[in-house]
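Intended use. Records like the one below are meant for learning the mapping from a protein sequence to its folded structure. Do not use them to infer anything beyond what is encoded.
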Amino acid sequence: MIWEVFRQEEQGEYHTHCGNVHAPDREMAKQFAAIQHGRRKPTNNLWVVPKTEIGELDGDEYAFGGATDKSYRWATGYDVTADDASEVVESSGEQEDAKERRNEVV
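Structure written out for the chain above:
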């Protein structure tokens, strides 16, 4: 069975993948990881995980990177056809004026 090994160099830092070990069970995998990956560099902590337990999230399946559409910050991104949207309409006009002034400066 293949076990993936993640090493933490100093307390508080992230664990990084440093390799794998072949072992029949968890205890042997921990021992092999300590010998092969824990003694070569300064090591605070090791994570030893069965390779079959590691899941992958593909960028084609999921959108990573957070919300890049920030139109919610501007009144122009809202529906202003409602009767109670007078403040939004006023703000929209102010933001359009500000946008024109920014373009004039550049």
